[in-house]
Amino acid sequence: MTAVHLGMPTLPTAPRGVGHLRGTRSFPDEARDSLRNGQLRANLGHATTTIRGKRAGVVAELPDWEQLRQAGAALKRATMARLDDHLEELERQVTARGGTVHWARDANEANEIVVRLAREAGAREVVKVKSMATQEIGLNEALEAAGIDAFETDLAELIVQLGEDKPSHILVPAIHKNRSEVREIFARTMPDVDPDLTDDPRQLAMAARAHLRERFLRATFAVSGANFAVAETGTLSVVESEGNGRMCLTLPDTLVTVMGIEKLVPTWRDLEVFLQLLPRSSTGERMNPYTSTWAGVTPGDGPQDFHLVLLDNGRTAVLADEVGREALNCIRCSACLNVCPVYERAGGHAYGSVYPGPIGAILSPQLTGVEDNASLPYASSLCGACYDVCPVAIDIPSILVHLRAEHVEAQTHPTAESTAFAALARVMSRPRLWRAAQRAAGLGRFLSRGKPVLPRLPGPAAGWTRSRDLPTPPAETFQQWWAKENGGGRS
Amino acid sequence: MSARDDVLSRIRSALGPDRSVPPEAVRDYRLTDDRPLDVLLDVLVDRVEDYRATVARCGQDQVRTTVQRLLTETLGEHDPADVVVAPGLPAPWRPEGSTEDDDRPAVELAARAAAVTGVAVAIAETGTLVLDGSPTSGRRALSLLPDCLVCVVTADQVVGNVPEALARLDPLRPLTMVSGPSATSDIELERVEGVHGPRTLLVVLVAPATD
Ligand code: SF4
């Protein structure tokens, strides 16, 4: 437990030893490994390019995008300034409509509450809607330790779970896997899978439907997160695409929603802003396929036993930092990941935390205390693209600088790692320099004669390879693979 | 101290004794869409079709035949009793021989071929239909489990944008906002339709009354 900032009240950060906010290695070490993985870089480059284009298109369609964005930012700021009052109001409203509200100081307490509720309900298995909060606290591991099976039902989460992998993106946790890798995981792990399954995304989605259908129909206990909670009415909301969320929110007898305390908005009307900002920023759609809202328990419709777990786990420590608290305004759209040159090249796993990318670089170190994620505030070139796309106008670059200052203050001198990484980030964030480094690396493949790691490079990458190894580029680029698999045409 | 009191007191200490309250949000974004109804109806059709749903427009006395035609086009020859309708769906809209949803266990709906419901509100700009758990919209499982969903929308239910829609909705009801068939973008961030929710969405848009 650590102090957050000099002169600020000392509030507990997220505890060690539970959950997924800390990696085992520093960002530069992780990034060096992922930079060696050409397939990973190709997958990420392809996916983020697709989504950037879609987002730009639907954002440009709204003449009042900037007004919505400023309203979103202002609403979130006002909410945080009276967070205590709004939470008490939310508790009153949820309780009045037949729900039960629980409070958890940290990950351990939240996990204990969910495990106890599952035991009381006699549930041996739990279906889950994708939720960052439950990933953050390591709920699946806690359920498993208690002998309860947790089944992820979101397609990307399912891919990660079946592949015994880790999430690498807050919206699409399996973004680092391409279609043929997904096919391989399904073919290997789904008991009744069609042996002729191809890597057509539609067929893969159908395989997931078949795999989970029975499980949904027999589920008695579900765990979800929440995108928004409305204090004045006690209304909770889940924004999703596939309908797995609706299955979990509708069919089981018991629903437990685990929500960070910062997720609320004061009034129902406030959702008119966020339901416009979120889908366009996240999946690049005018609206996501399904948004569900519910208030407590509705007789004859959906779970008749509803529990809301309000989670702190370091959030109040973030709130104590007047500059850093803006990170709590995040609506987890993932737009900042998709535009970040460092994320695109290093991949989500390099950040060690369930929150990767620019938002992760400012949120994770604040939730854990900056000494536990000390390299993350340096995992950025401060190019500002994240701020430009953020639908609630979080000034991520300024918070990064603020956290670096805080880290330096605590350390007296910056570590060699952080200095080295800052140099790499500069190269990665400038397409021209990066391509030059890559071209040099293409030449290097020949020079390295199949050795996995290149020696020092000339030119723009020299500063980096002096202290880091540059990965040997893959023999086949994504574009070459794509052309081969698709024969030039696309359905 | 209870966890509740502890978290609340942490918030109070984080915000400090003289917390600064930031200015109220300015709502200078579009609160209404004042285009005429016929334009909004066209926008709705365009946006719903963009999600790869099927839309059919019809007059007020053609709802039943339009619903039946869409069902036959989608399901082919089918047992009419395999189509379940929301309990409050007006009688003149119901396909011949359909069954009404009752309080049978929700999971039994999974075996049905199609569901027909009304909606509470439709949002033109986003191509969104909002079901509100009323007898006309049906309970949430009804619009979720059968693989084909037919929604009947009347012209007076169509609003231009999201703020107008939320103003019409009751936040205490269980709401489902439906924008196209179920879909995923989880593989390479490309949208493909049809995962756990209905894989087919058919929308019948009923023309306004003419006098
Ligand atoms: S910080 Fe902004 S852009 Fe990034 S995920 Fe959060 S809301 Fe989206």
Structural descriptors:
heterodimer; A: 491 residues; alpha/beta; Rossmann fold; 6-stranded parallel sheet; 4-stranded mixed sheet; 22 helices; globular; disordered N terminus; B: 211 residues; 4 helices; 22% helix; 22% strand; binds iron/sulfur cluster
Number of strands of chain B: 12
What's the overall average pLDDT of chain B, rounded?
A: 95
Count of individual beta strands of chain A: 10
Rounded to an integer in angstroms, the radius of gyration calculated over CA atoms of chain A is: 22 Å
Ions and ligands? iron/sulfur cluster
Element pattern of chain B in H and E: HHEHEEEEEEEHEEEE
**N-end to C-end Cα span of chain B:** 68 Å
Report the helical percentage of chain A: 40-55%
Class by alpha and beta content of chain A: alpha/beta
CATH topology of chain B: Rossmann fold
Biggest interface found: A-B, 99 and 74 residues
The parts of chain A where pLDDT drops under 50 for at least 5 residues are: 1-7, 441-491
* Fraction in helix of chain B: 10-25%
CATH H-level superfamily title of chain B:
NagB/RpiA/CoA transferase-like
Structural class of chain B: alpha/beta
Per CATH, the superfamily of the domain at 83-316 in chain A is NagB/RpiA/CoA transferase-like
- Average pLDDT of chain A works out at 85
Short description:
The complex is a heterodimer of chains A (491) and B (211). Chain A has 22 helices and 10 strands.
Report on this structure.
The complex is a heterodimer of chains A (491) and B (211). With 491 residues, chain A is α/β, with parallel strands linked by helices. Among the domains of chain A are: 83-316, Rossmann fold (3-Layer(aba) Sandwich); 416-485, no CATH class. In chain A, 49% of the residues lie in helices and 10% in strands. In chain A, strands 1-10-7-4-2-3 form a six-stranded parallel sheet, sandwiched between helices. A four-stranded mixed sheet of chain A has the order 8-5-6-9. In chain A, β5 and β6 form a beta hairpin. In chain A, α9 crosses α10 (201-218). With 211 residues, chain B is α/β, with parallel strands linked by helices. Chain B has one domain: 3-Layer(aba) Sandwich (Rossmann fold), CATH 3.40.50.10420. Chain B has four helices and twelve strands. Chain B has helices at residues 3-15, 37-50, 63-75, 162-168, and strands at 54-58, 83-85, 99-100, 114-118, 121-123, 128-131, 148-154, 158-159, 175-178, 183-184, 192-193, 200-206. The model of chain B has no long low-confidence stretch (mean pLDDT 95). Bound molecules: iron/sulfur cluster. Iron/sulfur cluster binds at residues 281, 330-336, 359, 389-392, 394 of chain A.
